[in-house]
Design brief:
- The protein has a four-stranded mixed β-sheet with strand order 1-2-6-5, with helices on one face. It has a two-stranded antiparallel ribbon with strand order 3-4.
- The protein is an alpha+beta fold.
- The chain has one helix and six strands.
- The longest helix is centred in the last third of the chain and has 20 residues.
Length: 78
């Protein structure tokens, strides 16, 4: 039996304790999205109801934003 991927409630990244919170709906610049990173609050928001594969992809994507922001790597998407 395959184990269900479970996202922790918090993760430690580069000495920062990052909260992970689920929301029913997420929007960024007026558009629906699957995940958001809030640098000021140190929270990753994830939309509820994603498939396991999508959840893995989105959490990794948001973690890259965390690393980029807190370590000044400037890994912007633009």
């Amino acid at each position: 039996m395959k184990n269900k991927f479970k996202v922790p409630k918090t993760i430690d990244i580069c000495g920062h304790k990052i909260k992970i919170i689920y929301k029913k709906i997420l929007k960024y610049e007026g558009k629906d999205c699957f995940g958001l990173w809030d640098l000021d609050k140190e929270i990753i928001y994830l939309v509820r109801g994603m498939t396991t594969d999508r959840k893995k992809e989105v959490i990794l994507h948001e973690i890259m934003h965390v690393i980029s922001d807190i370590s000044n790597f400037d890994l912007s998407e633009k």
